[in-house]
Amino acid sequence: MSAVYLPLMVLGLLVLRQNLFVVLGCATAYAYVVFAGEGLDGIILDAWSALNKDILLSIPLYVLAGNIMARGALAGRLIRVMRALTGPIPGGLGAAAILSCALFAAVTGSGTVTLVAVGGVMYPALLQAGYSKRYAIGALCTAGTLGVIIPPSIPMILYGVMTRTSIADLFLAGIAPGLLLTAALVGYSVWLNRHNRGDDWSRSEIGSALREGIWALFMPVLILGGIYSGLFTPTESAAVAVVYALLIEVYVYRDLGFKDLADVTAGTGRLLGSLFPVLMLAFSLNMFLTYQQVPDAMVAWLGQRISDPTVMMIGTNAFLLLIGCLMDIGSAILVLAPVLAPLAADNGVSGVHFGVIMVMNLEMGYLTPPLGLNLIVAMGVFGESFWDICRAVLPFLLIMLACLLLIAFSPGLVMTFVS
């Protein structure tokens, strides 16, 4: 009966709307005490063993670098570059909105920060240029999620740590899907708004925008180039990103003062204070399940019932899409990646390929009710109702779904840049 009480307890806590830290804490404590016959000190020992990894240092550093650049004028400079390059094309301002989000997301790694920073500038510009309100909201909400798949990506880091997959390979694997998704969204934007006349070409504006934005444009080149050239590791690249962001925003652009830096650091600390306790418990529970060979048993049980890799892939994608509607991406990866990755491997899907599939599925959760984070943030940014925003993102969600299916069944596409 002990095994029955655990899911009932978890279900009861979820019904009572307890946060993930409470749910994971109770489940982990129950597992250690009842199933393993250990004390609660085993949770701390296993959590410390799991957390004692250099790669985890990259998470707070990437978050800090993203917050520094989001607080400065980086978004405005990137938007100006994109408007100068694509604005003269019919429907080009819509393309500029997508590309601005993609670039800013690649620098900050945060979908919600991208939505706030770029959306606050581009939304009134799109409306003023004659673009429909529904298109503007849908495009900016959707493009704001691109930071989840475009490296450097914090969900990719979490997946890599939980499944012992190479972070560098995951970053490389995210490039082609990120470009595919960006190109699909840009193509749809240009086609939908092909009757919107663009601005006149201006060499002087292009040159001025590039001169002002060159330092911001160089940041993803520095980070990714340094990793793949072997100049520094993914963890070291996060430290480089923080130093570079500080130098550019404080000494080159001079958009931030030391008072702003104190606020940014405090905000980063508050965010990480809610993330790392959950991370600790998830690692501890994961180690317990590994000791008890639960993932192996689940893979064997499912393998007896699902022998077709195509059925497995379709079922896993459907399951992850559902989970994305109910859980945030970090929590879903921490809980599910250690269980689903072995199942995928048993059906011939590499850990790197499955990592991209999982992250992209959960990326769509930012745009699906009832818990879509970008939908909720967009209500404050755009001042529209929740269901109006849901309707606005629907056609973009269908495009993302088509790209997801292509990525899921085309491992060669995902592994384009992976050696």
Summarize the structure in words.
The chain is an all-alpha fold. It folds into two domains: 1-39, no CATH class; 40-414, no CATH class. It is built from 20 helices and no strands. The chain has helices at residues 2-15, 20-35, 41-51, 58-71, 74-86, 92-108, 111-128, 133-143, 154-163, 167-192, 203-228, 234-252, 258-291, 294-305, 309-326, 329-346, 351-363, 373-382, 386-408, 411-414. The model has no long low-confidence stretch (mean pLDDT 80).
What's this model, at a glance?
The protein is an all-alpha fold and 419 residues long. It is 78% helix and 0% strand.
What's the arrangement of secondary structure elements?
Blueprint lengths: L1 H14 L4 H16 L5 H11 L6 H14 L2 H13 L5 H17 L2 H18 L4 H11 L10 H10 L3 H26 L10 H26 L5 H19 L5 H34 L2 H12 L3 H18 L2 H18 L4 H13 L9 H10 L3 H23 L2 H4 L5
Helix pairs in contact: 1-2, 2-13, 3-13, 4-12, 4-13, 5-6, 5-11, 6-7, 6-8, 6-10, 7-8, 7-18, 8-19, 9-16, 9-17, 10-17, 10-19, 11-12, 13-16, 14-16, 15-16, 15-17, 16-17, 17-19
